[in-house]
Amino acid sequence: MNIVLLGIQGSGKGTVKENISNKLNFEYISTGLLLREEIASNSKLGLQVKDIINRGELVDTRIIMELIFKRIRNNQKPNVVFDGFPRNLAQAKELEKLCELDLIIFLNLKKEDAINRILNRLNCPKCGLTTSVETAKNYICPACGAKLVKRSDDTVEAINKRFEQYFSETYPLIDYYKKQNLLVEVDASLPPNEVAEQVMRAINEHNN
Ligand code: ADP
To answer: What's the rounded Cα separation, in Å, for the pair 149 and 84?
Structure first.
């Protein structure tokens, strides 16, 4: 079963993954996370994309496809949850060539709530966990104990750029997937456990 988590920056896609991973056996592919891993390891690709990401611009789709391909190439029958991909129609078409999609879960959150969440969010440079200042007041990662930091692309300028892109390029995908009867909407303003419950319900209903 292949699922896409779709939603504005800060809508809690990574948090959903954290809260459903003990209930569902899947490969989680977050393109943002994969890119941050490349940057952290100082790879050639990491150096190539670092400034683009910090400016809040999109990375070239060819690079994104290479990263995804590397992850699912050996997996003939993938069971994947995609996060942060596809981000536009061109990427959606690429994904269709790669695998069949079963469910698109749209985490619906107002832009104002999303801004507040992003300004409060903290990221673990070691294991990639995203959490918030409220949850981890001591700035220590609850998963691996490393020191949490703010993401270098969570600046007001880069956030505004990503929001612009979200509304012009990603938001149209909602209609695209609605027309294919693949979309289920979840209220992402609810507490994390309730969002995860709704996501699990959507997955279970699809499977029944
Ligand atoms: P956010 O959802 O807050 O933007 P992500 O971790 O999904 O965070 O992405 C961080 C950055 O990585 C994006 O701003 C973009 O530069 C790059 N990126 C992630 N996914 C993609 C993608 N599918 N296509 C192009 N660039 C991407």
So the answer is: 20
The predicted pLDDT at position 149 comes to 95
In angstroms, what is the span from residue 56 Cα to ligand 1's centroid? 8
Each as own residue / partner, the long-range contacts of residues 57-60 (CB below 8 Å, 24 or more positions apart, any chain) are 57/161, 57/165, 58/87, 58/88, 58/165, 58/169, 59/31, 59/35
Q: How confident is the model at residue 203 (pLDDT cuts 50, 70, 90)?
A: very high
Domain count of the chain? 1
Note down the domain range covering 103: 2-109+157-197
The continuous run of DSSP H or E covering 54 comes out as helix 44-54
CA–CA dist 13, 28 (Å, integer)? 11
111-134 residue pLDDT tens = 999 999 999 999 999 998 999 998
In short, whether 85's Cβ falls inside 6 Å of ligand 1 is: yes
- Assigned domain for 38 exists: yes
Q: Return the CATH number at 56.
A: 3.40.50.300
- Over residues 48-59, mean pLDDT: 96
Instruction: Let me know if residue 183 belongs to a domain.
Output: yes
**Backbone φ and ψ of 106, nearest 5°:** -95, 110
Is residue 84 in contact with ligand 1, taking CB distance under 6 Å? yes
